[in-house]
Amino acid sequence: MDILLLSRIQFAANISFHILFPTITIALGWVLLFFKLRFNRTQDRKWMDLYLFWVKVFALSFALGVVSGITMSFQFGTNWPGFMEVVGNVAGPLLAYEVLTAFFLEAVFLGIMLFGASRVPGWLHTLATFLVAFGTTMSAFWILVLNSWMHTPAGHELRDGVVYAADWWAIIFNPSMPYRLVHMLLASGLTVAFLIAGLSAWRWLRQDRTPAVATGLRFGLTLGALLIPLQILAGDMHGLNTLEHQPAKVAAMEGNWETRGNVPLLLFALPDEAARENRFEIGIPSIASVILKHDPAGVVPGLNDFVAEDGSVLHPPVSAVFWSFRIMVGIGMLMLVVSWGGVWLIRRRGVEGLPRPALWGLAGMSFAGWGATLAGWYTTEIGRQPWLVHGVLTVKEAVGDVAAGMVLSTLIAYLVVYALLIAAYLGVLFHLAAKAGQPAKPALQPSLQPAE
Amino acid sequence: MFHPEALPLIFAALMGASILLYVVLDGFDLGVGLLFPFTTEAERDRMIASIGPFWDANETWLVLAIGLLLVAFPTAHGTILTALYLPVAVMLIGLILRGVAFEFRAKAPIPHKKPWDIAFWAGSLMTALSQGFMLGIYIMGLQWSLATVAFATLTAGALAVAYSFIGAGWVIFKTDGALQLKAVHWAKGGIWGVVLGMGAVSAATPLASPRIFDKWFTLPEVVALAPLPLMSALLVALLWLSLRRLPTRDDSFAWFPFVGAVVLMILGFFGMAYSFYPYIVPEKMTIWQAAAATESLSIILVGTLVVLPVILGYTVLAYVIFRGKATKLSYD
After folding, report:
1. A63 vs B contacts (CB less than 8 Å)
2. In chain A, which end has fewer C-beta atoms inside a 10 angstrom radius, N or C?
3. CA–CA gap between residue A151 and residue A133 (Å, rounded)
4. Are the Cβ atoms of B60 and A112 closer than 8 angstroms?
């Protein structure tokens, strides 16, 4: 395999593994602060139980996020030296601000948040919890600024093939940044909502029916029900923004080959790039035009506009973008149905009245947020191809000249480690959930039970 | 706003400071991991408790150092990291294993604890050895040959021993009783490894690089630089004396081996920094040739000057909050 494809797979593997954990910690930090504040106010034990259970999940997810994030920062240099050489003047300061304003904050106060409860005054512990949540969100802010700039670069000038920063305000608030940031933060909120609802439902099914579990179930479902309409709205606005700045990506998402009006919303199709047409197309007439242009006759750009005179293709691979977009939207719609249905059932019959199939459904959707988040990132990142920085630098220009064998061997090593760690992570989450339901035994040897 | 010629120098100094802080801070917690094979389970719990609140922030200094290399010296960043591709990958996998083992060993089912302890040790070892190996290849001008790999193997071993020593110093400082006594024994053995490692690297470096030889062994430099090795020798003697008397009855001077090890690392670091200056890619690229655009460096420096004191402030706060002997870690 060629070095470009191997390097891309390696980066995709690393970043896909990485994003799983920040997606949880970004929102879970705020949820923990909420639990803590509720406990401070009500002194109801169930809020502390919720805090103490979910803080373990947070610590574990945070550690996985940190170590996989370090891998990312090195990958820029080991595999993509062209990236920093060409756009380092923009990307560098953004990454530096992430480290300075976010990483240290969250790392230092995480220690106090996790282990300092008995050593510091209550207000300082609450403050530490806030600063950790704030730090994770700041981290998301800076990295999404950079990522958005790669999609919709602005505020820079090109001199001798190197990018120089001209207007930092325009760089930071580049056209797609607000949409992407909101879309990602909501994705994190939804991931956590369904994780909390799902694990609580699983505990409920195992007859672990404490007030904390019931409240967790209600909290997760309510959070999901509140966020999903906002996410659908934000996603739609993000799509319109993409249409304006990256029309080729939207054409791939819609599987639309010719620029035309009355474009159907395709529910199913097998895009065939060789023949440049779709097979087995099933669609609803004109709806894509309505969504994208708010007019059934609205003209939507087609993929054939992005083929150069010499036949070289300047649009992203169609099938991957088309299908990952549909998976994301599909999971989103499922979340809408499940969370609204769940809240409706709880309002009518209480948590005790939830039927077993509904509980199993929720448990099965514990990690639905991961699926939607990954599918969404694949849509937008594959949709950026062949560019690394849209209109400025292609992936091909940036890839490093490392022996393919070395990239392949490290790729295999990373994949093995990641597969093991995901299995361990899932196993431990369910182990913690199962253990939380058992009555606490007095520890015979306290020293053998440290740092949970 | 800032003098364009001064900026690369300031950033080289900042990067050096981050690397030094990283080596000292993550050095002690990596060292604690390296000492795992000599411990019982209860001792491991206590050693983990002594580094639990700190390790994550300690590791962030590595991210800052690599971040500064990446942002301030973008062309050098690619050259150095592609040349060190394999050891970097080994280090990253080591850091991953170590970082997650921290959490998994305490949260996984009890029978899985031992395998995670082994992962913690293996991760620490992979990290320490690969960092030492990278240092060696870097000293050798990023060239891969039989001789440079042999030298890098030497530095790999030396750095792992140095980390173990500072780790033992940390355990002496943060624990008491039988574990502290054990750590004193580790440190007594480790100090000879440190002397051997530092001596070997110090002797081999000038021999391998004529430029570095000239930087050290010409008049008047050789006189001006004499305090570095002399202070190191004195410090080693003091460390040995203190280790023979530790632990004391009232636990006085338990901090000394750790602080001594830190100072020893600082001395070694300055020796290295002097050898390399002004190169960022040895013999090929100076810090001025590799520096990013002035306007980009300026905007980072403004932020750094504002934020870095705050970071140092709350880092100190964390060490104050978790001062004293390590006890059981718990979330409530």
Report:
1. 56, 99-100, 102-103
2. N
3. 27
4. no
Do the Cβ atoms of B126 and B93 come closer than 8 Å?
A: yes
Instruction: Show me where the domains of chain B are located.
Output: 8-321
Residue B278 near residue B179, CB atoms below 8 Å: no
Rg of chain A over all Cα atoms, to the nearest angstrom: 23
pLDDT tens-place string over residues A283-339: 888 888 888 888 888 888 889 888 888 878 888 999 999 999 999 999 999 999 999
Chain length of chain A: 452
- pLDDT value at residue A451: 45
In this structure, what are the phi and psi dihedrals at residue B253, rounded to the nearest 5 degrees? 65, 15
Chain-chain contact of A450 with B328 (C-beta, under 8 angstroms) = yes
Among candidate residues A71, A67, A66, A62, the one with its CA nearest the CA of residue A12: A71
List A277's β-bridge partners, or say none. Answer: A272
Residue A280: enclosing H or E segment and its boundaries? strand A277-284
DSSP E strands in B167-275: the ranges are none
pLDDT, residue A450, reads 41
The structural domains of chain A, with segments of one domain joined by +, span 3-246+331-437
C-alpha span between B14 and A269 (Å, rounded): 55
Residue B244: both structure tokens together? 């023979």
What confidence tier does A445 reach under pLDDT thresholds 50, 70, 90? very low
**Residue of A45, A47, A52, A104 to mutate for B, most B C-beta atoms under 10 A:** A104
